[in-house]
Give the backbone structure.
Amino acid sequence: MQFTPDLLPADLIGTLIYRPQDGTFAVSKGPIFSNIILADEINRAPAKVQSALLEAMQERQVTIGKETFALDDPFLVLATQNPIEQEGTYPLPEAQVDRFMLKLKVTYPTKEQERVILDRMSETSPVKRIEPVMSPDHLHTARRLVDQIYIDDRIKDYIVDIVQATRAPEEYQLPLTNLIQYGASRGPRST
């Protein structure tokens, strides 16, 4: 979904549609009701859209009118972000940034990569249909298998120490205070 400055929360989550025939309202669900959302240029959307997306990412639900709807499982948000210095961008709230597992910085391609891109984009052959490689049920099965993997308490403690050291490196006698802007995020969230 292309995020733009004129995007409204209803464009993302959906809205109530009035039915004049019987004087009722019907829910029209938006594109957020998918397993995977690609939020292109996420930081171009205004605060109210960011708030609606944050509810979906944090609570795994959205509210339309007075009704709350659970989102499908799995639910995953992928996003692209324009550099914050560009005109028409908004900084993302820390609570929302916290919901992303990782951030990749994409730089300009090399001259050779640029040529490959040019060659690929100049072909007019029809786009091949993408076939699914797994279903949500397969993913749930994989998650259950991962939950069965034994992790010793010493390894868990080591992981916690690493995370804590990013927040307070001086407590671990690490000279990293000037190198870390934000420590690691809070622990796992229940889903």
User: Anything to note?
Assistant: Residues 120 and 126 are 12 Å apart (CA to CA). The beta strands are 14-19, 24-29, 36-39, 61-64, 67-70, 76-79.
